[in-house]
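Incident log, structure service

09:12 report received: a user says their structure output differs between two submissions of the same chain.
09:20 pulled the input from the user's history:
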Amino acid sequence: MKYHKLLRKVVKLQRKKKLIPEDTSLLLAFSGGVDSVALVLSMLELKDFLKLKRLALAHINHQLRGDESYRDEAFCVEFAKEKGLEVFVERIEVKVNRENLESKARELRYKALEEIRQREGFDLIATAHHLNDLVETVLLWLVRGAGREGLLGFEEKSDNIVRPLYLATREEIEDFVRSKGESWVEDSTNYDLRYARNLIRHKVIPELKKINPRLEESFLRLQEILKEEEKLLEDLTQKAIMEVFKEGELDRRAFLKLPQAIKRRIVYRFYGIRSMKEIDSIINSIKKGYALEKPEHMINIKSLSAEVKECSG
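09:34 re-ran on a clean worker, output below:
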C-alpha cells in the first residue's frame, strides 16, 4: 500500500529524530482545524508503527469567538466520539488587550495542556505545527529584528511537546485530510489581516512563492545550516560565560572585550530577549558603566552565572 506523502514525512521524521518513544501515552492538542485533524488521522494510521500506548485529544476553548468557540468545541467532542478517542476539554479566559492576545492565549493554552498531561498521566503532548508555521515564525522574527535565535524558529521537539507534522506543508496537510473525506472547522480570525502572522501567511508568503515555489523546503535547509552553526557558537558562548563571570559577578572589562556577536548571545541567554535593538541597548548600558535599567536584571545574571558554574562543575 502506498502511503500519502504526509504520512511518509511523519515516518521520515520519526526514524531520523525518534520524536516519540515506544509505549508513549500521547495527548494530541486538537483545535478542530485542518492541521489538528491531519495530526489525529496520521497518529491513528501510524499508531502501530509508533507503538503508541495511549492516544487522546485535548481541546482548549479560549472562549474568544463567541458562538464559534462553542461550535469548535462541539465539533472536537463529536470528532473524538466518532474516532473512539478520549477527549479532554478545558475552557479558559484570556483577559488582555488585542496587542498581547495571541501570546497570552498561547501561554494559557500550553499551561492548560501541560496540566492535562500531568493530571491524566500522559507522557507527551503533540501539536500540529508544520513547515508553513515554521516559515511564518521565522519571517515574523526577521521582521521584528530578531537575531539568529529568531531565525531558528522552533524545533520538532521541545520539553514535553512534539511536532510530528514538522516536515509537512499546509498543502500536503489539506490534501491528506480531503483524501480521507474528513471535514474540519475554520477559525475566522485566521483571516483577520490585523494580525501580523495572518498578513505574512496570506499576503507575504504568496508573493515570495512567486520567486521560489519551494520556499518552505528552502527555509528548512536554511534552518539545518543555522542549527549546525548554532552548536559551534553555543560552545564559544559557554566558554565566554565562564570567563566573564568571576565569583558570580560580571567582569565588565572582560565582557566588553568579547566579540559583539558573543556579547549579544550572552545577553540573550540571560534575559531571553530576541529583539536585537533591546540587546544592543543592554550592551550599551554595560559599556557606560554597569548600569542595567532594572535591578532584577543583575540578580538574574548572578543566579544564572551560579547555575552555569554548577552545571560545569
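09:41 both user submissions now match this output. Likely a transient worker issue. Closing.
09:42 reviewer note: Strands lie at 25-29, 54-61, 86-91, 124-126, 157-158, 161-162, 245-246, 249-250. The CA atoms of residues 17 and 156 lie 9 Å apart.
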